Amino acid sequence: HIALPKFIHDLDVHILVEWDGYARSGDRAQGLFALRPAPVQILHQEFLGTMGGHFDYIITDKITSPEDTQNLYSEKMIYMPNHFFSKAHAIMRDVKDPSYDFKPKKTEYVYGTGSPQENRCLSSLDIGPKEASFVFCNFNKFLKNNPETVISYIQILRNVPDSILCLLENPTEGIPNLRKFVNDFASDGSILNERIHFLPWAANPFDHQMRSQDFCNIVLDSYPYNGHTTAQDALYGGVPIVTRSDGLDMSSRVSTSANVVLCLEELNAYDGPSQYVEIATKLGTNKDYFQAIRNKLIGTCLQREPMHPYWDVARYVFNFSEGIVKAFETFIYGNEVSHIEI
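Above: the chain sequence. Below: its structure as tokens.
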């Protein structure tokens, strides 16, 4: 581990930004930042939480990391406006803009065609309701959910007749365990399991992003660890997210902050799991309400001149640069490291 920090130090790097942290199952070595190869070290995005040392700042916002939680971090905050999470969907050529209408379904599924009800998570017509009334989705790893979240899914399926839940095979080995949990918890578990379906992983991230609009009416966000990149993919696919907003840790509040900036705060369940179920049920049973929410979200994605603050990459880069400059000025002038608000 000595060669890399020496290499960085010898390059006279002033600011070193870490994306991985303790993410990726701890595969990446953590000794680099402990050796302080750069005078200013900043944590950003991939691992959402404190590293417990070796970093001066963490990039966040005041909704994702409320000010009264500052004592829980070893880092000082660089507070970004309009959500801290970087995203470039609105300017990437390979990312398709969402549309208010769905293209006609093909006999066999083709990316960008069919409604979620028509595509029904690519499940067999012999399994579950003959016609899906509504499709709830979650494309995160199973490990991001606790048992309470899965119980919420069960309650939502019960509340919305003929609805289905579309999940990602992530991992495939976990599917039997999830189905067993549903069977063990619910007296109607075998019936509910016929309404829970799984999509295979899409290796191409642009294909995966496009599938959000094709397969999802609403995302039921993970708790206690939200969807992060997958959440941005869904939102830019015009798929609203219902999220729990009663947690305090950073990883549980990413979608809460997103919904506030997108003026969809009514999808934030500040009162916990019961409100989470209530919001999802309303969306699944009130067609006009759901359509109004969906149209509002798609409007933010398509907004140009000016671009909506949530999707405005140039604005994000400007604000991020401001934070980096202020952090470096603090070092240059020998001032004590403190919170920065952009």
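The chain has a mean pLDDT of 95.
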